[in-house]
Specification:
It is a single chain. With 101 residues, the protein is α+β, with helices and mostly antiparallel strands. A three-stranded antiparallel sheet has the order 2-3-4, with no helix packed on it. A two-stranded parallel sheet has the order 1-5. β2 and β3 form a beta hairpin.
Length: 101
């Protein structure tokens, strides 16, 4: 009977070691995924992106930053080239073409 107890104890130990390794692997993958998302946001800040145009009325533009979601209303001439919240650079070429600026 003691031989079986030794084998069962060893098997339980191996299962625990494997379980801990799987948990650590999942944690490492989650951290890498999180870092990848943050790196992607930093890279988007360096590139020009098109703001999300919500509305254009009477020369005013309601737009949203595609990176952080900040909503802004401004007139066509004084709109920002960067998001005041996250620093994302904007490409206004599409709206300039529509408004004839």
């Amino acid at each position: 009977m003691s031989e079986y107890g030794f084998f069962i104890g060893t098997a339980v130990f191996v299962l625990i070691v494997e379980f801990v390794a799987i948990l650590k692997s999942n944690h490492d993958e989650a951290e890498a995924y999180k870092r990848g998302g943050e790196d992607g946001k930093i890279e988007l800040k360096r590139q020009y992106v098109k703001p999300i145009i919500l509305d254009t009325l009477n020369g005013d533009i309601d737009w949203e930053c595609p990176l952080c979601g900040k909503e802004v209303m401004s007139d066509a001439e004084s709109r920002n080239n960067y998001c005041g919240e996250c620093g994302c650079k904007f490409d206004w070429s599409e709206i300039d073409g529509k408004m004839g600026n």
